[in-house]
Specification:
This is Glyoxalase. By secondary structure, the protein is α+β, with helices and mostly antiparallel strands. It has 5 helices and 20 strands. The protein has one domain: Roll (2,3-Dihydroxybiphenyl 1,2-Dioxygenase, domain 1), CATH 3.10.180.10. It is globular.
Length: 299
């Protein structure tokens, strides 16, 4: 497989300070203090220099998703495959790569218009995680399979078949589950793994989304850490998009909380780990074993 993990997200925010307060005070991520000429702030969850770059903007939305390739050979082969298929790929400058703490990267759009940044050679600085909420670690690695990435992301893709073919045939992901959520008129969500044990790193939602991301997920190691985050979110006045529940396909026990500006964050634990070489894809007609009652603002 070409892609090892979902490495980072670049997020535009109309109130970077509020996003940072949410990221540190509610999610328990670490403020990764870095100089940035464009005023971005950075959130850390492991030995990577950052996993989330929060950039000043007029609106809140996902700017780009960073996908990690295992080495330069795999990275270049992926770029060649994309260009041969007619996709426009722009290799970033050395200064742009340094800002992302990677050796090289290239940006492109998937068929749905989502911006991806394919990179290799993340520059780790091994600064220990110090969570302001006392979280001992986030689930970003596995002893057997190594890096699991920051978690997962669900991206909008109205033409889901074309987008799925792009990810599976060109980016190099594999289908793990096809979900037909009940009561949504045949709309489906395709879940895909990269070359690690996380059940899915990327999912495609067969519809539009104004913020460019349906949700992002980060995982903690225990139910207690999840419960304490729920208490912090309640104390901070954050909106719970979904109550506590457990998903069918990846076994994740989680809640959904809205960040300032409206991006949904799934905060979970106990996600399913798979063997990406042998896992057999499933088809689901239910999203949840229990819970996850949704409360959409203004609906």
């Amino acid at each position: 497989m070409s892609v090892s993990a979902a490495g980072y997200l670049r997020i535009s925010s109309a109130d970077v300070g509020a996003w940072m307060d949410f990221g540190t005070g509610v999610l328990g991520l670490m403020d990764a203090v870095r100089e940035d000429a464009d005023g971005a702030r950075f959130l850390r969850m492991d030995d990577h220099p950052f996993r989330f770059m929060i950039e000043p903007g007029d609106t809140d939305k996902l700017l780009a998703a960073g996908l990690e390739c295992p080495d330069r050979h795999a990275w270049q082969n992926t770029l060649n495959r994309l260009e041969d298929a007619g996709h426009s790929v722009m290799v970033g400058s050395s200064d742009e790569a340094k800002r992302r703490c990677v050796t090289e990267f290239a940006s492109l759009e998937d068929p749905a218009g989502n911006t991806l940044e394919l990179y290799w050679g993340r520059e780790l600085d091994y600064t220990p995680l110090v969570s302001p909420a006392g979280i001992p670690f986030f689930v970003t690695s596995d002893q057997q399979s190594g890096d699991l990435g920051f978690g997962h992301m669900v991206l909008p893709a109205p033409d889901i078949e074309t987008a799925t073919a792009f990810y599976t045939e060109l980016i190099g992901t594999g289908i793990t589950d096809i979900l037909y959520p009940p009561g949504m008129g045949g709309l489906k969500i395709n879940f895909m793994h990269t070359n690690n044990a996380r059940q899915h790193s990327i999912a495609l939602f067969g519809g539009e989304h104004p913020l460019g991301i349906v949700h992002m997920m980060i995982e903690v190691p225990s139910l207690d850490e999840l419960g304490q985050a729920m208490d912090r979110a309640k104390a901070a006045g954050a909106h719970f998009l979904a109550t506590l529940g457990r998903h069918v396909n990846d076994n994740m026990c989680s809640v959904y909380i809205l960040a300032p500006g409206g991006i949904a964050v799934e905060y979970g634990y106990d996600g399913l780990l798979i063997d990406p070489e042998t896992y057999v894809a499933t088809v689901s007609s239910e999203g949840d074993l229990w819970g996850h009652e949704y409360n959409f603002p203004g609906v």
